[in-house]
Amino acid sequence: MQIKLGEKIKELRQRDKRKQEDLAVVLGVTNQAVSRWEANGGYPDIEMLPAIANYFHITIDELFGYDGDRQARLQSYIEQADQICKHQNNTSLVDFLRNAISEFPSEWQLQYRLANALVSMGYQKSEPHAIVTRGSHYFQYNTEYNAQNECWKEAISLFEEILKKEIDDDSRTSVIFSLMWLYSWMGDWKNAEKTALSQSPVRVSREVLLADTTKDEKSEEYRGEAILALMHELYKVLRTAVMIKHSLSHSQAGLDALLAVVRLYDSIFADGNCGIFHNDICMLYLNCSSIALHLNDSERALNYYEIALEHFLAFKQVQKSSPFTAPLVDKAKNYRPSIVLLDREWFEEHMQSFPGEFVDAIKSNPKYASIFA
Questions:
Q1: How far apart are CA 217 and CA 340, in angstroms?
Q2: CA 259/CA 251 separation, integer angstroms
Q3: Is the dihedral of CA 359, 360, 364, 367 positive or negative?
Q4: Which residue among 14, 111, 295, 334 has its CA within the 20 to 30 Å range from the CA of 147?
Q5: Rounded to the nearest 5 degrees, what angle is found at the Cα of 62, between the Cα atoms of 59 and 65?
C-alpha cells in the first residue's frame, strides 16, 4: 500500500502540474515529507488522507489506486455527452457536462466537450458578423459586442486550462484552433498573437518534415499528406486575405486570386475525386459568386453558385475513409483537415443577393432539392 500511495501522489501531482511544496503548504508539512512519500520512504498520517484526496479532487479509494469504477463512470459520461451532442441540444449538453464535471473537476475530456458546447451556444446568442469599419478597406468582427458573450468567455477559460494538461496531439491542435478563433472574434489580439507565436512554423510541421526527410516506401504517402495539408492551409489564408479586404472582395483581382486556388485544387485532384476537399472548393466558389455580385455580373455569380452547389452535393457523398485517387495524393492516408462544415443556411443567406428569378430557378431545380428541402 505504501508504494502505491507514494506513486499515486506523485502521479496526481504531475498530472495537475503541482510542485511538492504546493502540496506541502496545503497539508502543513515540509517539502521533505512529501519527497519521502513519493520516494517510498514513508507515508502520510491516516488523518491526512481526506485532505490529500480533496486536493486532487478524487476519492480516498482512487488515491489508493482503486479507480476502476471511477474510469467506468467517466467513460459513461463521455459517451452520454457525445450522444446528446448528436442531437444538437446545446442547453441539455451544457447542463449534463456541468454535472459531470462537478464529480470529475480535473478531467479534460469533459472540459473539452463543455468548451465546444459553449462555443456553439455562443453562436446561437451572438453570431460574429463581419462588418466594414468606417474609413477602412478591411472587414472586421464586431468585437465589442462579441466580447460580452459569456459563453465564449467561459469556453476560453476552459480551453486555456486544458492546454496546461497532458492531452493527445490532435486534441491539443483542436483546442489551439478554437482559442485562436475565439480570441479573434472577441478582439483579444494579444492572446491570439501569443498563442500563435508559441507554435511551430510551417516549415517544421510534421507533414513537411516527413516529406523532406523520408526516402523509403512511405515517402509518397508523406509527400501526399504534405501536399494536402499545405494546400488546405493556403486555401484558408488566401481566402481570408481576399474576403477580409474590401478592395479585393469587390474586385476582379480578388476573384482571380480565388480562382487560382481553385485551379490548383483541380491540378492536385486531376481525376475529380476531391474527397473532403469538395468542402473547400465549395466555399471558394461561394466567395467567387459573392465577388461577381459585387461586380454586377449576376450571370457569372449564378454560375459560380451552382458550381458551389455541385461540390456541396459531392461532399455529402464523401465518407471519412474515402481514399484519394489522383497521382499526386493517391498514397496519402492520414491527413484529414479541420473544416467548417457548410449547411443550407450558408446557401440560403447567399441567395438573398440574387435576383428573384435566379432564386426561383435554383430552388425549383430537382438536382438541388436535397439541399433546400
A1: 33
A2: 13
A3: negative
A4: 111
A5: 160
pLDDT value, residue 163: 92
Express each pLDDT in 193-203 by its tens digit.
999 898 888 88
Helix (H) or strand (E) holding 287: helix 278-294
| Cβ count near 136 (within 10 Å) | 10
**Dihedral sign, Cα of residue 31, residue 37, residue 41, residue 45:** positive
Question: Amino acid identity of 107?
Answer: E
Distances (CA, A) of 227 to 19, 291, 295: 44, 28, 33
Residues contacting 353, CB < 8 A, separation 6+: 290, 293, 301
Give the pLDDT confidence of 224-234 residue by residue, as tens digits. Answer: 999 999 999 99
Q: Which one, of 129, 132, 130, 354, lies nearest residue 247 by Cα?
A: 132
- Spatial distance between the Cα atoms of 233 and 251, rounded to a whole number of angstroms: 23
Cα dihedral 354, 359, 361, 367, rounded to 10, equals: 110
User: What is the DSSP track for 47-96?
Assistant: GGHHHHHHHTT--HHHHTT--HHHHHHHHHHHHHHHHHHHTT-HHHHHHH
Distances, alpha carbon 295 to alpha carbons 327, 334, 357, in Å: 37, 40, 19
Spatial distance between the Cα atoms of 204 and 267, rounded to a whole number of angstroms = 25
Mean pLDDT (whole number) for 52-78: 78
3-state SS, residue 171: helix
The pLDDT tens digits of the residues spanning 145-189 come to 888 889 999 999 999 999 988 888 888 989 998 999 899 888 899
Residue 364 per-residue DSSP state: T
Please check the confidence at residue 8 and state whether its pLDDT lies above 90: no
Pull the grid cell for residue 100: 459531470
pTM of the model: 0.65
> How many residues are present in the chain?
373
Cell numbers for 304, please give them: 459560380
Give the CA-trace dihedral at 216, 218, 220, 222, to 10 degrees. Answer: -120
